[in-house]
TrEMBL record:
It is found in: Cytoplasm. The keyword GTP-binding does not apply. A divalent metal cation binds at D8, D9, S43, N95. The keyword Hydrolase applies. One of its GO terms (cellular component) is cytoplasm. It comes from the Bacteria. This is 5'-nucleotidase SurE. Coiled coil: none annotated.
Length: 264
């Protein structure tokens, strides 16, 4: 198996090393792991691509490249230029912090898996929830490091990946606890914290100019039963199937009764 890995925390992030170990075990002794990751942190860029400017590529060692671009750029570079042969799987992460609830919409980690799906390649985004029970561990990525291989294998071997148009990809969040406290893998929907909106924090520089920091909200607030954040804070690895099609089908049916008869 040939696996491409990337992230949004940057080529030097510790979570990428965790993901490399996961990918190496999944690929097996006859497989290959290719690393194409952002040269600098790209957290919060979502599915951004550098459409109007080129992305510089630096080869650091065999099968390891840094791209001055977004995670989606890295997937495009890997699939379209850098990897020698067909890619069987794209893994993105392991992100430092959760990409559950509303965070999903901002995540560059998700953006990479999304781009893989758009290119017709299986993609899995993997993130490590941080909390008081794991943030001070010697390895805060303990849950991901121990349970990541099993999760990926189970998805490869048993999960649905098809679709006539927009392919499925998967969002995985490891719970904020030590690996030996993880209860299992749960199939859940994306949750809604309600207070998970991004905001701004204004500051004034000594020069008198105003700047804005983008800030998030509390991450431990549970979502509804059967959804990602609630599963995570209760000690479960959350696994959420996703597609790039953002259409709300129920609302579409209702809208047809409001607008003109298209008939298409």
């Amino acid at each position: 198996m040939r696996i491409l890995i990337t992230n949004d925390d940057g080529i030097s992030a510790p979570g990428l090393s965790v993901l490399q170990d996961i990918a190496t075990e999944v690929a097996g002794p006859d497989g290959e792991v290719w690393i194409v990751a952002p040269a600098f942190e790209q957290s919060g860029v979502g599915h951004c691509i550098n459409y109007v400017k080129p992305s510089m590529i630096t080869q650091l060692e065999e099968r390891r490249f840094a791209i001055e671009g977004s995670p989606a750029d890295c997937v495009l570079a890997g699939l379209g230029e850098l990897v020698d042969g067909e890619i069987d799987l794209v893994l993105s992460g392991v992100n430092r912090g959760n990409n559950a609830g509303e965070n999903t919409m901002y995540s560059g980690t998700i953006g990479a898996a999304m781009e893989a799906a758009l290119q017709g390649v299986r993609g899995i985004a993997m993130s490590q929830f941080y909390g008081p029970h794991n943030v001070k561990l010697d390895n805060p990525f303990d849950s991901a490091a121990v349970h990541g291989v099993d999760c990926v294998r189970r998805l490869i071997e048993g999960a649905e990946w098809g679709g006539d148009d927009y392919k499925l990809f998967y969002n995985v969040n490891f719970p904020p606890c030590p690996a030996n406290s993880v209860k299992g893998l749960a199939a859940v929907a994306q949750g809604y914290r309600g207070d998970g909106r991004m905001g701004v924090h204004p500051q004034t520089a000594p020069s008198g100019r105003k700047y804005l920091w983008i800030k998030g909200s509390a991450q431990g607030e549970p979502t509804q039963p059967g959804t990602d954040v609630k599963a995570n804070v209760e000690g479960w690895v959350s696994v959420t199937p996703m597609r790039c099609d953002l259409t709300d089908r129920a609302a579409l049916d209702g809208l047809r009764g409001v607008l003109d008869d298209y008939g298409g």
